[in-house]
Amino acid sequence: MKLALIAAVPLALAVAAPASAAQFVFDFSPSQALFGPPVSGSGTFTTSDGATTIGGRTAFQITSITGTVNGSQIVAPTGNYGNYFTTGPAFLDGSGLRFFTQSGIDVRFFFQDTVSRYRVNTFGAFGSSEFVNASSSPATAAVPEPATWALMLIGFGAVGFALRRQKRPATARLRAQAFA
To answer: Number of C-alpha atoms within 13 angstroms, CB side, residue 119?
Structure first.
């Protein structure tokens, strides 16, 4: 039992890997329409943990996008359209993002450096182009439920109990006997 426990600890440490993908909540709302109907949206970017540099800013590749645009679910990013979340004053680079919604709208969301504003272009059933007010912030981490904490504490208690209840090796004890 003790040997198994000693062997399991390094294995558990080797297998354990930190969850390093970061999530960022974003939203955008109409600011100045150039043409077409107004567009608004919100959702979450999930990024990789490997950083690169784009335009002098640290950038992380966006691995998935969830959310809605004009009430239609975002399907996913497509291809390699420069899907990067960047640090600094703008959270998207000039290439921005391209993704589709369930209703078939092709959405291009990017930061237009020439005017220092975010812009959304849509193609599909309707087309539009407009500057938007956009924001992004790190997603808040989930707080474990009380049942999760209880199970964890029970598990620690069970391990402690199992270690405490191990049989100890028998030792010979000699007692002096009085010979009469």
So the answer is: 17
Query: Which region among 8-22, 35-49, 131-145 has the lowest average model confidence (pLDDT)?
Result: 8-22
Say if residue 82's pLDDT is above 90: no
**CA 165/CA 167 separation, integer angstroms:** 6
Tokens of 11: 């294995």
136 closest CA partner among 40, 31, 25: 25
57: left (phi over 0), alpha (psi -120 to 50) or beta: beta
Q: Which of 135, 106, 138, 30 is nearest to 97 (CA)?
A: 106
Amino acid present at 77: P
Beta carbons within 8 Å of 121's beta carbon, 6+ residues apart:
107, 108, 127, 128, 129
Percent residues over pLDDT 90 in the chain: 6
Neighbours of 39 (CB within 10 A): 22
Task: For 113-147, give one letter per residue: b (16+ CB within 10 A) or e.
Answer: eeeebbbbbbeeeeebebbbebebeeeeeeeeeee
Q: How confident is the model at residue 87 (pLDDT cuts 50, 70, 90)?
A: confident
**Residue 45: per-residue pLDDT:** 83
CB 64 within 8 Å of CB 76 = yes
